[in-house]
Write a structure and sequence with these properties.
- This protein is α+β, with helices and mostly antiparallel strands.
- The protein folds into 2 domains: about 230 residues, Hsp33 domain (3-Layer(bab) Sandwich), CATH 3.55.30.10; about 50 residues, HSP33 redox switch-like (CBS domain Like).
- It contains 10 helices and 12 strands.
- A 5-stranded antiparallel beta sheet has the order 8-9-2-1-10, sandwiched between helices. A 5-stranded antiparallel beta sheet has the order 5-4-3-6-7. A two-stranded antiparallel sheet has the order 11-12.
- A hairpin with a 5-residue loop joins strand 1 and strand 2.
- The longest helix has 19 residues.
- It is globular, with a radius of gyration of 21 Å.
- The protein starts with a strand and ends in a 5-residue tail after the last helix.
Length: about 300
Amino acid sequence: MKDFIMRGMTADGYIKAAAIKSTDMVERMREIHKTLPLATAALGRSLTAASIMGDELKEENGSITLQIRGSGPLGAITAVSDSQGNVRGYLQNPACELPLKANGKLDVGSGVGKDGLLTVIKDIGGKEPFSGKVELLSGEIAEDIAYYYYISEQIPTICALGVLVDRDQSVKQAGGYMIQLMPGAPDGLISTLEYRVAETPSVTSLMEEGKSPDDILRFMLEGTGFQELYRHEVAYECKCSREKVERAIISIGREELKRLYEEENSITVTCQFCDKKYTFDKADMSRLLSEAPEII
């Protein structure tokens, strides 16, 4: 089964929810960045959350960027989604390793670090993207996403994210869900949902049992008349191109371009999201230099 995201709402309109299977996209990320298990889990959770959040954007060419900068050894994490839930991302230290927690699980919270910020940048076609920041609560990412929605957008949110890494370090299961209350929802509803979450196995445990994203949501929201609105496939998808890299090189400025032209026979630029390399020889640099604007 290919990765997909599905979204729906309860019959009374008080709850909206989305769930995703992200196993293939997280495995593709692991293959590209050669992440060890801790980094796979941290960036995988971030990509899963970004996909859910990006898929909700109404602007066709919109995007959402999650930046997680904690004090832990994983370093900065970046995950980007387009408005169809297709994602790309990277992190600073893909080879980071830490001892497992007492329960045998990967210690993502310590890898990310509690001291730091979660930044959410929404580009919906305006002059300036919207940006919201909150302090990290735990570094476990799902809790931090829920906290962001509560503080920055005043939306009570339950978020669950999971990445299960196999013995050979490949991604065995990855997915998540997000449940949010709409305006006018009865007091105490979020507490009822939180209790249900506390009594429910992890996302990856449910997926290991063969449950799909819609199975999980219907289980979580049993008795609410939950109705699916839509579903579609999602994937890890980098949007780099030689033309975009050329524009980035030109943007460094004419003086720096001139220095590179004079000192180097060629330059190679590597995409942070997919590790694809773009090489520009002397003739390419001369052409780019001719296209760079003069500084007045």
